[in-house]
Amino acid sequence: MPVDRRFRHAPRHRNRVSVAFMIGVLATAGVAVGADDWGHVMRQTRLGAFPDSGQAAQMPVPQPARGLTAQDWQDARVAWAYFEAHYRAETGFVDAVSRYASATLWDQGSYLMALVAAEGLGLITSKTFETRSAALLAGLERLPLFEGRLPNKAYDTRSLAMVDYENTPVPEGIGWSALDVARLLMALRALEMRAPQFGPPVRQLLASWDLGAMTAEGQLWGATRHAGETEYLQEGRIGYEQYAARAAALWGLDSLYASTARPILAWQEIQGVQVGTDRRRARSFGAITPVASDPYLMQAFEMGLTAEAAVLAGRLYQAQEARFLATGQLTSVSEDHIDQAPHFLYGTVFGNGRDWAVLSEAGAHYPQLRSISLKAAVGWDALYGSAYTQKLRAALRDLATPEGWLVGRYEVDGRINAALTLNTNAVVLEALHYKHRGPLLQ
Question: Which residues form the DUF3131 domain (predicted)?
Answer without folding.
Answer: 75-438
